[in-house]
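haha ok so turns out i had the wrong file open the whole time. this is the CORRECT one, sorry everyone. sequence first:
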Amino acid sequence: MDNFLNDNEIILNFNNKQRIILVASEFDNQTLSACSWLISNGVNIKCFTIQPLLFNGKHLLDINVLLPQKGLEDFYVEFSEKNRINRKNANKTTGKRKPNVKMSDLIQKDIVKVGEILSIKNVSNSDAIVLDEKFVEYNGQKLTFNEWGKKMTGWSSINIYRYAFSKRFGCVLNDKLNENEKE
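then structure:
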């Protein structure tokens, strides 16, 4: 059997064009980290998020490509303190990895203001008041940003920066943050 496969060069070409496509409403950090690692090791894998939308009475899909993209290391999850230290030192020289953004950073940069009303992108009646860097008030309830986002979408996890919409800027927080970084 091995002779047949070798003689016909089947082994050389077997599974060379295989690919993996993952589709979900949201991905957790561990999944994105694993997929990023696979991509950096030559596996053809893509991650898409799909959100249903209702626009002018029509049902639409908002499709976003999460991976692959530039800067795969942004999705890696650190497993030990030793790796974290090594990655920090490596980042000083390359400057490629973005630091983890926190809501307190967005408040400090005036991207989010205490007392401001945010909503979840494409979710009606999701307005919440920013109480501080950790909490919002939604319908009289004090919730963390992520609890609020998950409650509004029904998802098990959410990247709040990609879905919290600022009426003041007319975009989600992540877009405003990226805009500020370019300036």
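The first helix runs from residue 2 to 7.
again sry for the mixup
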